Amino acid sequence: MNKLSLIKLVVVAFIFSLGLTAYSFLPKSEVQSANNSAVSQKEDEDLLNIKNYKKWTKVNDKPHLMDSSVSALCAAPTQAQVDRESKNPHNQKYINVYVNSIGKTEMMTKKSPKFPQGTVIVKEKLSTPDSTSPELLTVMIKREKGFNPENGDWEYMTVNGQLTEVTAKGKLENCQACHALEKSGDYVSRNYLPYNIRQKLK
Ligand code: HEC
Fold it and tell me: Atom of ligand 1 at shortest distance to CA of 70?
């Protein structure tokens, strides 16, 4: 092999390896990002659905002061978190509750509501009554009949205050245990319903 063809060979090999490197990089990152967005899109379906919750019907009028024992519990998906939060002496919180159009009539006018499938109720937890950015959201979503028959077919969800992350979701035991006490109200408490509206429930 003469010197020239050796150089040619090295150059070709170099270009080939460059191409190989580029090839191994590009499609992989493309596949990866496609996968990621597919996954997050799937996870985000309910998150997307609540993005505009502040435009829904606001159920309470003034930010409702939450009992501090409930504050720790009606937020944390795990017992460890509950324990941590309930030890915090500053955990007096305020809430606002919003309901989407599907659940509005039951929420605002019925004495014994039976929320239709597709109802979404968002409760935002605020550290001060005038805060505009919630610490977190707790959410109840009414699923199809048979989804969760012992608990009114509700799914529970917690979301971070920036609305970017679902922190827990499902038939969450901790949430259900407490909301089961409100069975007569279809597992919804409504203790924040304004007095004048409560008076008119039929
Ligand atoms: C200690 C009992 C308790 C636990 C546990 C609890 N909640 Fe609640 N939840 C309440 C009470 C009481 C209210 C009424 C509003 C208030 O006082 O904060 C409420 C209100 C709500 C509301 C507004 C609709 C309604 O029922 O009036 C949503 C949504 C909600 N909770 C979601 C959740 C989620 C999600 C979890 C689990 C992460 C959870 N809750 C765990 C007691 C609880």
Answer: 1
Ligand 1 proximity of 139 Cβ (cutoff 6 Å): yes
Pocket test for ligand 1, best of 98, 136, 138, 172 (most atoms within 8 A of CB): 138
Closest CA to 125 of 56, 64, 177: 64
Separation CA 139–CA 124 (nearest Å): 9
HSE value, Cβ hemisphere, 13 Å, CA-based, for 201:
16
Instruction: Say if CB 58 and CB 98 are below 8 A apart.
Output: yes
Which residues touch 50 (CB under 8 Å, ≥6 apart)? 120, 122, 137, 139, 159, 163
Q: Which amino acid is at 177?
A: A
Phi and psi at residue 148, to the nearest 5°: -155, 65
Does residue 190 have its Cβ closer than 6 Å to ligand 1?
yes
> Which mutation among 53, 98, 179 tests ligand 1's pocket best, with the greatest number of atoms within 8 A of CB?
179
What Cα–Cα distance (Å) separates residue 201 from each residue in 28, 37, 66, 148, 185? 58, 44, 23, 27, 12
pLDDT digits (tens, 9 = 90+) for 109-164: 999 999 999 999 999 999 898 998 999 999 999 999 999 999 999 999 999 999 99
Closest C-alpha among 177, 194, 166, 150 to residue 70: 177
